From TrEMBL:
It comes from Leeia aquatica. Pfam families: PilZ. This is PilZ domain-containing protein. Residues 345-420 form the PilZ domain. GO terms for molecular function: cyclic-di-GMP binding.
């Protein structure tokens, strides 16, 4: 009898009937599940006439919807990110995210009206509304590189109930976190971020959101402001020119966020691996995360990335040395034609453009193409090798190719070996066993390309900050002191150094990047 009553209750409850239609979603592929929800949810809004019923249905459905979107994004990040794969993902994800956002919107509006009478003790929609509003912003940015369609005041309508603590105590923490994530994403997306980096930003803000705080008055440090009555994204506060007073003005403090971001960068560099919470699916590379961390920090601090030099179109073939040993061999001229190592770690690519700070290449869409990769570059027919770091990868119309942007560090790099200061005076007597203590790397002499700072590229972090080392190359010798580790790349560690004892022939004479 009890079972019959339960069955009858399910039949009479429209929310239960609606949710029963979604029971098969876990067995569907992420894309198929998203396509189903995108078509099914608008129909249910007509059936579940009252926003409170729709909110009850969303409360039960939301965790599965988030999981399906995360699974689809993880699949996208797993392989080479071609235009076709991105388009297929966007075709499924955009209407899906839009449907969920639109389903939550009347629930938030109804909740605001109900506060005049009494607040709902169940199913407050604010956390879900801001979550899908943030996803909607991310999807728009991925597909259009801007956020012109975002309805800011529509999203801001959820803020007063959250910061005014008008929600049930059990729902308030999740809503505040969702608001913090929305503020971080909307102020952190920048035009230079690639699609993979946008996903990394999305993951990072989930870790950083607990460190965001809100106030009605400006404080010291990096902070943003928004006005819930104005249709504009959060903006960086200029303490010398505060926004006009308003009863909808809110300040968002970023100081602790930036501190945590720096701590995370240091942790990743020291441990040489990514936190599981960030790289939960194993799809991220350490270097692209570190690059994204720096870009995100610069964006939040108001540092605008601008092109330093004009591009000049080129059409030449180049050779690329893809690892530090290969770069060392090439810049030192160790090899001779016919030896077994001459083509080891070498790829061929086409140069498309050049500026005084870098070059643009068209390369095969292969696994070695990564942001943060140190490369040696030689134009076909030119004996000179230069050294740079991959800073940008962009999809082309052809799925088999990528556009690669390389920042040039030096036009006259040198293959060097370091030895500890204590061994300097007996260097020539070092035996074969002692030679294992050598540290091999690439010397970047001071130049306009290195911002007049001498640097070293090493394959491993084998030096000590503050320590002095003897340095040898091509019969020249000198001494350098390690200042700081300034970058952890995909295949290198970059250190700034001070020249303690003068190095002969160490200053770049060539200042023009011209092939």
């Amino acid at each position: 009898m009890l079972d019959k009553l339960k069955a009858l209750t399910r039949q009479l409850n429209p929310v239960q009937r609606a949710l029963e239609a979604t029971q098969g979603l876990p067995s569907l592929t992420p894309v198929a599940a998203m396509e189903f929800i995108a078509g099914w949810l608008p129909q249910q809004q007509n059936l579940l006439e009252q926003p409170t019923r729709m909110q009850e249905a969303l409360w039960g459905l939301d965790p599965l919807c988030r999981e399906r979107l995360a699974a689809a994004a993880s699949e996208l990040m797993r392989g080479q990110l071609t235009r076709l794969r991105l388009q297929l993902y966007a075709n499924a994800a955009q209407p899906y995210v839009q449907a969920l956002y639109r389903a939550y919107l009347p629930c938030v509006q109804q909740y605001k009206l109900s506060l005049v009478q009494k607040p709902h003790e169940q199913f407050p929609p604010h956390a879900g509304f801001l979550f899908w509003g943030t996803r909607r912003l991310v999807m728009e940015f991925i597909t259009t590189r801007q956020a012109q369609q975002t309805q800011w005041r529509e999203l801001y309508a959820a803020i007063p109930a959250i910061l005014g603590e008008k929600l049930p105590a059990s729902a308030l923490p999740a809503a505040r976190l969702a608001l913090a994530q929305f503020c971080l994403v909307s102020s952190g997306l920048a035009a230079e971020l690639e699609v993979r980096q946008v996903d990394i930003v999305d993951r990072l803000v989930g870790m950083l959101a607990p460190f965001v705080s809100f106030s009605q008055q400006p404080r010291s440090g990096i902070q943003y402001w928004l006005d819930i009555h104005q249709p504009h994204p959060p903006a960086l506060v200029d303490l010398g020119k505060l926004p006009p007073p308003s009863n909808g003005l809110i300040y968002i403090q970023f100081e602790r966020v930036l501190d945590e971001l720096l701590s995370l960068e240091t942790l990743i560099a020291q441990q040489a691996q990514l936190p599981t919470k960030l790289n939960f699916d194993g799809n991220l590379h350490r270097t692209e995360v570190l690059v994204t961390l720096r870009q995100l920090r610069d964006k939040w601090m108001g540092k605008v990335a601008t092109r330093r030099h004009e591009r000049k179109l080129m059409d030449k073939f180049v050779f690329l040395a893809l690892d530090l040993p290969a770069i060392r061999r090439k810049v030192a001229g160790f090899e001779q034609a016919g030896t077994r190592t001459i083509n080891l770690g070498i790829e061929r690519a086409r140069m498309e453009d050049i500026s005084q700070s870098g070059i643009g290449l068209r390369v095969p869409a292969e696994a070695w193409a990564k942001v943060g990769l140190a490369v040696g570059i030689q134009v076909e027919g030119n004996p000179r090798w230069v050294v740079g770091v991959v800073r940008r990868l962009v999809n082309t119309q052809t799925a088999s190719e990528l556009h690669m942007g390389v920042e040039i560090l030096s036009l006259t790099p040198q293959s060097i070996r370091l030895v500890e200061e204590a061994r300097l005076t007996v260097w020539e007597q070092t035996n074969a066993g002692g030679a294992l203590d050598n540290v091999f790397g690439v010397w970047i002499p001071p130049s306009v390309h290195s911002h007049e700072q001498a640097m070293l590229l090493l394959e491993k972090p084998e030096v000590v900050i503050g320590k002095s080392y003897g340095m040898y190359y091509h019969g020249h010798k000198g001494m350098v002191r390690i200042k700081d580790q300034v970058e952890v790349g995909d295949n290198f560690y970059r250190y700034t150094v001070d020249v303690v004892e003068a190095l002969s022939a160490s200053v770049e004479k060539a200042q023009e990047l011209d092939f």
